[in-house]
Amino acid sequence: MLRRGPRSGLPITVAAHSRALGPAIGGCRLRHYPDWRDGLTDALRLAKAMTLKCAVAGVPFGGGKSVVGLPATTSPELRLAALEDLGELIGSLGGSYIPGPDVGTGPDDMLILRRHAPQVFCLPATHGGAGSSSGPTAVGVLAALRAGARHVFGSASVAGRKVVISGFGAVGSALAEALAADGAAVTVSDVDDAKRARALDLGYGWVHPDDAPAEQADIFVPAAVGGVLAPSVISLLTAPLVVGPANNQLTEDSVAHRLDSQGFTWIPDFVASAGGIIYTLAREIRGLSHERATAEVHGIEATTDLLLTRARANGTTPLAEAIALADTRTKA
Ligand SMILES: NC(=O)c1ccc[n+]([C@@H]2O[C@H](COP(=O)([O-])OP(=O)(O)OC[C@H]3O[C@@H](n4cnc5c(N)ncnc54)[C@H](O)[C@@H]3O)[C@@H](O)[C@H]2O)c1
């Protein structure tokens, strides 16, 4: 569904890729795109990834996403108008797409969408929701990383390993803190140079984002934007294990083969980044406690382990195995 917002005049896309397992669920992305069609493409690709994420995570929802293409600079008034427009469009879909936060939105924005939409996820805790999903997402990435480290290095421990995290935002900073606490040597990177001082204060190394994939490391963690793993980047990569939360990390699926054939273990983003959705649904739909919901997020370690074991046994890639697992669930 593509519409120009009546209040904001901005292009709004709501994409529902699959409803085979339940209503389409997925975040609302508000960001600037060079062309409105890039926002449309982003929504379609992200919605497809959400279908895979939900199916592999074993949650009864399909994949959706909504995207508003903002101008290069946005006033608070325009942003509010865009959210009202988005909420109205989602409301007109009668519950077939359920939104949550994504890049450019947060739990407080869900309150605005709820004025129009029948259901939203990740409301602030003060309004009965589970709040930001970035903490549980980081917990899930760490679970996937442990399984990956066991397969690649023979031990789940990160002590003494060098980890480069590209994207020092909500998830990236939580990952940096946890990995450093477990004894990893952490280097971070961000396009926002203002984050450099904080990173250095916390004792992390810093590398320019363009140089992050080539930085000598044991583990590379894409925690910023999609499309970071292009063939040209893979020829520079040094880390044998690549795992992170950024959605749609590969420029195209064939890159998974290239990574595999060059000896890199890449854990599909839709597997590693499912912690937020697993936690939020466990809390907000099933009413589980924080502890029980977090325990379910830790299940990502066993899922990752299964996919890596199958890929090794079948001579395939973890991506192929993850898609096969999702297919068996969505087509059952
Ligand atoms: N937050 C969640 O619960 C969640 C869940 C699933 C997936 N993800 C994905 O994980 C990634 C990080 O999420 P977040 O919540 O930490 O977002 P965030 O916006 O808090 O942080 C992203 C950071 O990346 C930086 N950045 C942008 N472009 C960059 C580039 N080219 N190189 C290096 N840094 C760059 C930004 O300046 C920002 O600091 C996003 O791709 C998001 O879609 C997040």
Automatic annotation (TrEMBL):
Binding-site list for NAD(+): 167-172
Stretches assigned to the S-adenosyl-L-homocysteine hydrolase NAD binding domain: 151-275
The Glutamate/phenylalanine/leucine/valine/L-tryptophan dehydrogenase C-terminal domain, residue ranges: 129-331
Active site (record annotation): 65 (proton donor/acceptor)
MF-aspect GO terms: nucleotide binding; oxidoreductase activity, acting on the CH-NH2 group of donors, NAD or NADP as acceptor
GO biological process: amino acid metabolic process
Protein name listed in UniProt: Amino acid dehydrogenase
Species of the source: Amycolatopsis albispora
